[in-house]
């Protein structure tokens, strides 16, 4: 807290509230943490995705392959630039894109693949990157839930052509409002992202591109800069809680999340599958026991009314559809005490007894 107070006072003294040196310092630290050459602060994870698509000139007539089982922003950003979201089904164990199905969905119009590292574990990036390189397709990682996740020693956001992060309060590294960022090793791309986030102007009042206001403000960057050094510790705590859940819940009729070989899962969520149509009853029982839970996500994107014109229907992605009916995310956060976790475990044991 003293560091937050000091940072706040210094920022007020400086009078610089949008972009500026505090944001630049955080961008350098973030790039180092993610293992990339450049990080570009953005106003949100959603705007990071939008700016990334714009920076590659993706738009009308282009197809972007992504998951139907994600937060709306992934797909919303594709539609907002005028491109067509092309869905493929997910892997039932990881909740992430099924790489074999991605390969089959590629057409001559495929401009990008947007894998989502859902719940804190990276998608199957090795085959996705191999395919993308062979077919000259850009990979935009939606790493909003996965800062610090690793895939064969590569950090989330450093594997594709660009990574998109969110610092929304529910994410593993969060600010006190909205914030986001793009990560990349491509110096030209980083420059385009910096120009795009400020209305496409460079120099000032000369607009070579049509951008937007996707700027990160100094207050959020200050908060993020104070918190970033703690992220590894918080990630270790999340992983410890996940391991304890796994040990203690292994005999219940739940499917627990797993860590795939070569990966480091950062457990933004600890999401279990409840078979037999009992998910909603379980949630009700947890609520009665004073335990919060959440369903991420109850309706897959191909069934959302706003995407009806894409022409998808129920039955197109059976794994995503079944998953949306079975999943529930249990409480997990770094500061969770053993007593708090025991309460959750006891409530689950009572339900299944
Ligand atoms: C949170 C999130 C976003 C959007 O981030 P915001 O900062 O809330 O705009 C995008 N994709 C996924 C998968 C997310 O979880």
Key descriptive features of the protein:
13% strand; alpha/beta; 12 helices; seven-stranded mixed beta sheet; binds pyridoxal-5'-phosphate; 353 residues
What does this entry look like structurally?
The protein is of the alpha/beta class and 353 residues long. Helices cover 39% and strands 13% of the residues. The chain has twelve helices and twelve strands. The strands form three sheets. A seven-stranded mixed β-sheet has the order 1-9-8-5-4-2-3, with helices on both faces. Helix 3 runs parallel beside helix 4. It is globular, with a radius of gyration of 20 Å. Bound molecules: pyridoxal-5'-phosphate. Pyridoxal-5'-phosphate is lined by residues 44-46, 70-71, 73-74, 116, 142, 144-145, 166, 168, 178, 180.
Write the layout of secondary structure elements.
Layout: H1 2-14, H2 21-34, E1 38-42, H3 45-55, E2 63-66, H4 72-80, E3 84-87, H5 99-105, E4 110-114, H6 125-135, E5 138-142, E6 150-151, E7 154-155, E8 162-166, E9 180-184, H7 187-196, H8 218-227, H9 231-249, E10 263-264, E11 270-273, H10 279-288, H11 318-326, E12 327-330, H12 338-352
Parallel strand pairs: 2-3, 2-4, 4-5, 5-8
Antiparallel strand pairs: 1-9, 6-7, 6-10, 8-9, 11-12
The protein binds pyridoxal-5'-phosphate.
Summarize the structure in short.
The chain is built from twelve helices and twelve strands. The chain is of the alpha/beta class and 353 residues long.
Helix-residue proportion: 25-40%
Number of continuous helical runs: 12
How many strands, which pairing sense, and closed or not: the largest β-sheet?
7 strands, mixed
- End-to-end separation in angstroms reads 44 Å
Strand content: 5-15%
Q: Give, in spatial order, the strands making up the sheet with the most strands.
A: 1-9-8-5-4-2-3
- Give the bound compounds: pyridoxal-5'-phosphate
Number of strands: 12
